[in-house]
Amino acid sequence: MGSQKRIAKELHELVESPPEGITVKLADEDNLYEWRVFMDGPEGSPYQNGKFQIKLVLPTEYPFKPPTVSFATKIYHPNVTNDDKGSMCLGMLRPDEWKPSSKIGAVLQFARQLLAEPMPDDAIEGRIAEQYKNDRKHYDEVAREWTRKHAS
Amino acid sequence: MNIQDFLAFDPETDTDHDMPVDLRSLDLVSGYDSHLMCPICHCPLVEPARLQCDHVFCQKCLRSAITTFRSADTDDFPCPSCRTPTSRISTNVPRLLINMCDEIQVRCPFLAEGCQEILPRGHIQSHVDRYCGYRLMPCPEESCDKKTRKKDLQPEERCLHGYYQCSRCEQDVMEQDYEDHEKELCPSLEATCVDCGTTVPQRELQGHVDQCPEVLSPCMASKYGCTTKIRRGELATHEQSCPLVSIAPYFEAQNTRLDSLELKTRHLQQRNEIFEDGLANIRSTLLESARTGGRLGHSGESGQQNQADDIDDSTGMSPISSSNPTTYLLSLHESLREEVSQMTHALTDLDARASMTIMNECLRIKEDMAHTNAAVNSVRMQVQWLMNPRLHNSTRTGNMRGASTAGNDTTRTQFTSTSAPGPSQSAGPSLGPLRPRRPSDSGREGTKL
């Protein structure tokens, strides 16, 4: 019960004053625990002009358990799994690093920051991370291509 | 206290209120400082507790956090804010914090029942317990499971949930709602529109009056002087032809301009007042300095005094003579400078005169001294001349007397030999008959001017 109130409050805040490039709504009006997030690719990154859909699922134990963030839109990124799930690897979302005082808004802003600056050392897709580190130009090209194909 | 004690002790559940208010679900009216928000439930802190790392949470939230995060065999858990391992919890938080949380203004939870009360969060529990007439109470009839507002319950304490049939509309109405139904809600209640004469259900009357085409309503431009009042149906045609309506936007624009200009004027007036105050201050200081300056200045300088009088007069007048103080100050400065130069002249004059007199005196004294020196020298010469034969005599007699009176003689010889150089010694009393004439007397007589 306590979690619902907090979630409603955070949702209200995010809808009222959304962070830059991020819009939030409920996937289903009756279910507070599943959110749809639309994120604009940050300027200056190969994801620019892309519009990415993110699924954010909150556990019933929220805020004691971290939410899970996954990309519904395919994205070429070292920290997002290149499969149907599109799970995102965010340090602050790991169960042992999650803090109940973290807010969803902060999580989303952090995720957007990760689009602008991938963290190849903390990668989930080793191949893309390798390419990002060694062949930046080619990585940019592919990421741009994928953005055009899937996220526009 | 340690974690086990903390988990066992729960002030929120163990209360003696028959209807505990959930402080987290209250509707907040006033804003509150974000530092008063529990990072876990995102509500103003309720029964706060403090960890070793100084982070504060609601006790209830902290309890849930501990049960989620603590591994079974350890007696510490990570702080939900900074993850510092913590084993001790203090429920003793600063009174200030609790007071600030209790001061947040909230709505009574029975707003839906009609309670409009807004009061500090700290008082809400006692309000619900004791004073709120809209609180829902269980029906006194045991077989009835419905609830009644506390104030409706008051006089006879009976079940108000029986149904009655409305005598007019034949609808079944619960007893507790009957009064409202009879007065307002019953569809059979009708009212007649004063203007068009149609009858409408009473509860729709207000809506009807707002729209009724027969109601006389004023022209849109009434505030700009159009006195026409016609039926609403014909208002549109009137407004099309009314010259005041077409000119209304212009008036409005002018009004806003006037408003902004008035605002500006007010600002300027304020500034003007400030400047005038400053000016008055400057003038009063000037006047003061003029007075003291007038006293300093010589009374003979009549021109200056006249000027001071002028200033006295001008202060009583309007600020037209605002340049007078400055010119006066300048003239005052000029006259003071003149005076100073005069004084310098006088000083140099005096200096010259004094040095002249000093020099004159000096010359005279020097002359005197020369005279005295000369006299003293001549006296010395005379004394020596007088003493010489006597010295001769004494040495001769000393040799003649020989050893018989040797002791006596030696003293005399000694004496005479010592007394010879200075005339002052010669006045010694032991000399007796040998005392010479005092030559200095005559010498002094001679040198006196």
UniProtKB/TrEMBL annotation, chain A:
Identification of the protein by name: E2 ubiquitin-conjugating enzyme
Major enzyme class: transferase
Lineage: Eukaryota, Fungi, Dikarya, Ascomycota, Pezizomycotina
Keyword Acetylation: no
Residue ranges occupied by any UBC core domain in the UniProt entry: 2-152
Gene3D superfamilies reported in the protein's UniProt record: Ubiquitin Conjugating Enzyme (3.10.110.10)
Record-level Gene Ontology MF annotations: ATP binding; ubiquitin conjugating enzyme activity
SMART domains on file: UBCc
InterPro entries: Ub_conjugating_enzyme, UBC, UBQ-conjugating_enzyme/RWD
EC numbers on record: 2.3.2.23
Organism: Penicillium steckii
Sorted UniProt keywords: ATP-binding, Nucleotide-binding, Transferase, Ubl conjugation pathway
TrEMBL record, chain B:
PROSITE patterns hit by this protein: ZF_RING_1, ZF_RING_2, ZF_TRAF
Comp. bias intervals (Basic and acidic residues): 438-449
TRAF-type domain location: 99-154, 181-235
Annotated region described as Disordered, given as residue ranges: 292-326, 391-449
Zinc finger regions, TRAF-type: 99-154, 181-235
Listed SUPFAM superfamilies: RING/U-box, TRAF domain-like
Coiled-coil boundaries: none
Low complexity bias locations: 416-434
Residue span(s) of domain RING-type: 38-83
Polar residues bias: start-end ranges: 315-326, 405-415
Keywords, alphabetical: Metal-binding, Zinc, Zinc-finger
PANTHER family membership: TNF RECEPTOR ASSOCIATED FACTOR, TNF RECEPTOR-ASSOCIATED FACTOR 4
Protein name: RING-type domain-containing protein
Protein species of origin: Penicillium steckii
